[in-house]
Write a structure and sequence with these properties.
This protein is of the alpha/beta class. It is built from twelve helices and eight strands. Strands 1, 2, 3, 4, 5, 6, 7 and 8 form an eight-stranded mixed β-sheet that branches.
Length: 288
């Protein structure tokens, strides 16, 4: 079933396994949102939601932890990125766990990814993908966290992680005319970002003054977006779900904690399916 509403996916590195568990429940129940807005790791798992491949996100982010070095400081010192770019955006989707690109490009769903322009500090939204290489290149750029990843270039413009400029692209979705949402977040419900600036990032990119300004304002914008999500929930324009267990670090190879997080999302997905059906007025085949 295609729902004429919006699905908003926050990033959060391996914490997105919570969202991956929920998405697998949605796939099981054949619940698909027409408009998907995603950032960073959220964009990575969003692709497999659109290709309708249950378990793909779990396999790519969890199963590879014990078989491959998806994240390592050795890779950072030798290749310039903590993330194994070749593995994550080429070998996994094209060889190890092939994505159904035909399904993606023929889908009635649309995916809007957010990137951050280092020169302007502004979010850049991509929703047109000419081929599978371009799709994964944009996803890679959206996942290129400052300092620990190389800067990616899109049409000659230096790009970094989309979460720097718009970690929860709910306002972009509203501005596009979408009026009802399911929002999946990767921090606990009472979380608010501390009002401090990463000196490491601002020092590393000091010549990108606009980007540094974005980083300094990021905690305020992030917290304001969380408040906006709650406002939409109170107005009955959105439903939102958060992980409610202890969370692992942004990037970790702790297989046990990652599996617990996915399982938590998968179990939460039962409630998500129920709430989505109620909120969007979906009737089961058995309903009168």
């Amino acid at each position: 079933m295609l729902i004429d509403g919006g699905l908003v996916l926050e990033g959060g590195g391996t914490r997105c396994l919570f969202s991956a568990g929920i998405l697998d429940r949605l796939i099981e129940n054949k619940i698909y949102f027409k408009h998907v807005y995603a950032v960073s790791a959220g964009a990575y798992i969003a692709i497999s939601y659109i290709t309708k491949q249950k378990g793909w996100a779990k396999g790519s982010l969890l199963e590879t932890v014990k078989t491959s070095k998806l994240f390592s400081w050795w890779h950072f010192f030798t290749k310039g990125s903590v993330i194994n770019i070749k593995l994550m955006f080429d070998k996994i989707p094209n060889e190890m766990l092939p994505l159904d690109y035909d399904e993606f490009f023929n889908s009635e769903q649309d995916l809007t990814m957010c990137l951050t322009d280092l020169r302007t500090g502004e979010p850049v939204y991509i929703n047109k993908y000419e081929d599978k290489k371009y799709l994964m290149d944009m996803c890679c750029a959206s996942n290129s966290f400052p300092v620990i990843s190389k800067t990616r270039f899109v049409d000659g413009r230096p790009m970094t992680d989309g979460g720097m400029a718009d970690a929860i692209p709910i306002k972009k979705a509203v501005s596009d005319g979408v009026d009802k949402f399911l929002v999946l977040l990767t921090q606990q419900s009472r979380y608010r970002k501390k009002l401090k600036t990463s000196k490491l990032i601002t020092t590393r990119y000091f010549w990108h003054k606009n980007f540094v300004k974005t980083i300094r304002e990021r905690p305020y914008k992030y917290n304001a977006d969380l408040d906006y999500v709650e406002e939409l929930v109170n107005k009955k324009q959105a439903i939102a779900f958060y992980p409610e267990i202890s969370l692992p670090k942004l990037i970790t190879r702790d297989e046990k904690r990652l599996r617990e997080l996915y399982d938590h999302g998968y179990e939460t997905g039962i409630e998500v399916v129920k709430k989505v059906k109620e909120f969007f007025g979906i009737k089961d085949d058995t309903d009168a």
